[in-house]
Design a protein that fits this description.
By secondary structure, the chain is α+β, with helices and mostly antiparallel strands. Helices cover 41% and strands 11% of the residues. The structure holds zinc ion.
Length: 150
């Protein structure tokens, strides 16, 4: 079996697209950081791991499915990954970074993923209002006096 965590895997692309949509700027695969996070925002000191549920032992349906063949091997292997992930996150925290994990199964619900990313980026209400339509619509309803006072 091939390791899931390679460059440009689909789950990672999904997260990157969602971040771009939110206007976030990021870098990829900073090898200098513990655990080689998938997505890095140096300005925010935010490191994001996009993890496959099986490989990284997520506590979800997909994550707890272990192949029947060589069961002990897979359990041990995933266990090592989980231990390494925890160590990387501790090391990042010690360097003052915030480490967040987005799971493969989180990507099924695009709305929830966007909400989570907004939360991570701490986008405020004012920035959300800038979304096309909402603000303009509200002003127009009040008489469209946007240019008054200029
Ligand atoms: Zn999962």
């Amino acid at each position: 079996m091939r390791r899931v965590k390679g460059r440009d895997t689909t789950p990672e692309m999904t997260v990157r697209r969602a971040l771009t949509k939110l206007g976030a700027r990021y870098r990829l695969h900073r090898k200098a950081l513990p655990g080689n996070p998938d997505i890095v925002m140096p300005g925010r000191k935010l490191a994001i791991f996009v993890h496959g549920c099986f490989w990284h032992g997520h506590d979800c349906a997909r994550g707890s499915r272990v192949p029947k063949q060589n069961r002990d091997y897979w359990v041990a292997k995933v266990g090592r990954n989980v231990a390494r992930d925890a160590k990387s996150q501790d090391a990042l925290a010690a360097l003052g970074w915030r480490a967040e994990t987005i799971w493969e199964c989180d990507l099924k619900d695009a709305g929830a993923l966007e909400a989570r990313l907004r939360d991570l980026l701490s986008l405020r209400e004012a920035e959300r209002e800038r979304a096309p339509g909402r603000l303009r619509g509200a002003s127009r309803a009040r008489g469209g006096s946007l240019i008054r006072g200029r």
